[in-house]
Amino acid sequence: MKYVVITAVGDDRTGIVNELSEEILNDGGNIEDSRMAVLGGAFTIIMLVVGEPEAIEKLITQIPAMERKLGMTIVVKKTKPRRRDASLLPYRIDDEAPTARCISFALPHRCGFDGPSGDRP
Q: Closest by alpha carbon to 121, among 112, 113, 103, 104?
């Protein structure tokens, strides 16, 4: 498998994510992770795209055509899978403690750490 980071910036408009995603998928790429933002009137996305070496090379050659078709500036950077440190253990947060439940419940329901606030302001 080959990995690339794709950064794309263009004018924000309806359907831009769908169009870009379809282009990547049609070339054989798989979007494994992404971050998106609208900054002013500009839409930007950063994606980790994974695929077979031939598919990724094809995708890279299609970038200039994609830029013209989508009206975006697109940058591709080859990368590799993230190396996991074997000394670190994966973790999970369980929402079983009353305090944890209250924190996630607090803002919309005026909840304090001692339970629902009822008639408190």
A: 112
